Amino acid sequence: MKDAEFYPIFNIGHQCSRAHCNAGLGAGNAFTFIDHNFQKQRFTFNQLEANSNRFANALSDLGFGEKDIVVSFLPKCPETFFSFIGILKINAIAGSLFSNFGEQALIDRLGDSGAKAVITKKSLYKKIVRIREKLPSLKYIFITDIDKHIDETVLSYRQLVNNASDVFVVPETAPDCPSVLHYTSGSTGKPKGVQHLHRALNTIRESAKEILQLTSDDIYWCTADQGWVTGTSYGIIGPWSLGVSQIHFGGTYDAAAWMQLLQDESVTVWYTAPTALRMLMIEDEELFKKYDLSKLKHIFSVGEPLNPEINLWAQKVLGKEIYDTWFQTETGSIMIANRPGQTIIPGSMGKPWGDINAAICDDEGNELPVRKAGNLCLRLGWDSMFAMYLNNKEVYENKFRNGFYYSGDLAYKDEKGYFYFMSRNDDIINTAGHLISPFEIESALLAMDEVAESAVIGVPDELLWEKIIAFVNIKKQFIWNEDIELKIRIYLSNKLSTIATPKEIIPIDVIPKNRSGKILRRVLKAKYLGEDAGDVSTMDDQNSI
Ligand code: ATP
Ligand code: MG
To answer: What are the CA-CA distances from residue 143 to residues 68, 69, 104, 124, 158 (Å)?
Structure first.
């Protein structure tokens, strides 16, 4: 264990701020916050240290400490970052929720976790007020944009930090001390509370170095919201533990604004998601010619399979490669990836990195031969592995067999050790005895001029066991008609096979997704079958990332 050697103070908050100040790098830029009106604020590591210390002191004074859960329910703003680091510094647990969650989603997560405090904004506070009596553990609400405390439990974040010292001595932190709590995206069902430990720092930091190849010269932008694991592992911990300067944007998706930011802020490494890239793909190519992206070295993607068509588009329109990365809330950091310097095989998410040992297994924990589809598993033994699902021991225990963690995804591996994502366990389609990956059909559809996006599902069928249904979102300049439908059929049957050609092709205006941009196939399936869609708390009402 090299922890003591690398980290005299093994605490994520300390390593992301104070460690750089101690090394004489405190005057360096930690982040530039650009709000939705494009107003910029710059913060050095010294300021990150001071501001997070203030919140750490304020929490300590109120009696918070180890194992207390403090949840941020904020849109991206400087306090999102200061509070996250401050919570970790006192060895409390930092939770983070999407700011557009509704009341039921909040009750589920704040109630399940037993959160002791929530940090929010005036405009979101009313949601908490309406549910507060259902949350007996919730002692305090901190509001970032009011000047004075409202009462003894609803406190002004500003007043608290203004009265607190900017010096804080981080207590001893055991590597197994709980650190970050995230709820999964809820793509396959009810979101699960995933608890991480401070030792996660090791894997997150190393992967940011090895895969994202971040160095102190970089300017880095991770578009993920802090409500999702990518937003904390790679929007906070990875880059800051390496002392890398970031930008954080408080606005929403806008192709021109994003390109402007990449250009004006001289971003060198960009981490985003396939759903955002697919949205960029439907923009007029002329738009991209207006911007100078010569500083941008690498683009990475995570969250969903990266359709090969996106890579082709990026090479042609941006003149860049896109490196796919695979991980989960549970794994805490990237496990499998493409990376600069390694040949990309379009359609493959790359290889495991470092000591990560990934395998394709049958249901009993036996490894399968190359090119055989099976469960994507990881041999236990990396530091960012989750410690438990909150209040869900049974589901947690079911995830392990024969020393492997079962990810719940299906994949195969080739002779050279590249991994190919097929689908989630629940989404694979068994039609007439053939296993068909919805991703393969969706990727083929994306190559058609008419198709903006699609989602493919399997539904029960008497003859075929399951039949394939494709929901297709047509680009604005096309009108859905029988000719387009026929064209899609002929195209898919030529490109893939007649077996993989959907039995029904249904036009749709908006593909249902969750806030992290993942297609919610189970929602389409329920809708098609006239059934209840179950937990839709993470569903976004429009295409956003
Ligand atoms: P839930 O577990 O609640 O159903 P979720 O699995 O979507 O939600 P996350 O932990 O946010 O929650 O997402 C991890 C999943 O996202 C992976 O298991 C995989 O299915 C998908 N995923 C992530 N990255 C990739 C990738 N590069 N290629 C393919 N799929 C990916
Ligand atoms: Mg999952």
So the answer is: 18, 17, 21, 9, 8
According to DSSP, residue 145 is labeled: T
Type and span of the H or E element at 468: strand 465-474
Coil, helix or strand at residue 153: coil
Q: Which long-range contacts (CB under 8 A, 24 or more apart) does 137-141 make?
A: 138/110, 140/62, 140/116, 141/117
Alpha-carbon gap, residue 168 to 394, rounded angstroms: 39
Structure tokens at 291: 């911007």
CA of 191, closest atom in ligand 1: 3
Residue for token pair 């939705």: 36
413/13 Cα distance (integer angstroms): 37
pLDDT, position 434: 85
User: Which atom of ligand 1 is least distant from the CA of 349?
Assistant: 27
Residue with tokens 């033994």: 381
Among 298, 319, 245, 307, residue whose Cα is nearest residue 276: 307
- Nearest one of 343, 326, 334, 492 to 410, comparing CA atoms: 326
Show Cβ contacts of residue 382 under 8 Å, excluding neighbours closer than 6 positions.
203, 331, 333, 335, 355, 356
> In testing the pocket of ligand 1, which one of 97, 278, 409, 537 has its CB within 8 Å of the most ligand atoms?
409
The residue whose CA has the least distance to atom 28 of ligand 1 is: 305
pLDDT at 3 over 50: no
CA of 162 to the centre of ligand 2 (A): 40
Q: Quick one: which atom of ligand 1 is closest to the CA of 301?
A: 27
The percent of residues above 90 in pLDDT, for the chain, comes to 88
Count of CB atoms within 10 A of residue 81's CB? 27
Q: How far apart are the C-alpha atoms of 89 and 172, rounded to whole Å?
A: 10
- Which of 183, 184, 523 to mutate to test ligand 1, by most ligand atoms within 8 A of the CB atom? 184
What is the pLDDT, as a whole number, of residue 262?
98
- Which ligand 1 atom sits nearest the alpha carbon of residue 439? 29
What is the arithmetic mean of pLDDT over 439-467? 93
Q: pLDDT tens, 127-161?
A: 999 999 999 999 999 999 999 999 999 999 999 99
Q: Which ligand minimizes its atom distance to the CA of 334? A: 1
> Do the bridges between strand 451-461 and strand 336-337 make them parallel or antiparallel, or are there none, so unpaired?
unpaired
What are the φ and ψ backbone dihedral angles of 183, each rounded to 5 degrees? -95, 140
Q: Which helix (H) or strand (E) holds 514?
A: strand 513-514
Q: pLDDT tens-digit profile of 388-410?
A: 999 999 999 999 999 999 999 99
Is the pTM of the predicted complex or chain greater than 0.90?
Answer: yes
What's the pLDDT at 188? 78
pLDDT at 7: 61
pLDDT digits (tens, 9 = 90+) for 242-281: 999 999 999 989 999 999 999 999 999 999 999 999 999 9
Ligand 1 environment, Cβ below 6 A: 184-189, 191-192, 302-305, 324-326, 328-329, 349, 407-409, 421, 424, 516, 518
pLDDT digits (tens, 9 = 90+) for 359-386: 999 999 999 999 999 999 999 999 999 9
Running DSSP on this structure, what letter comes out for residue 415? T
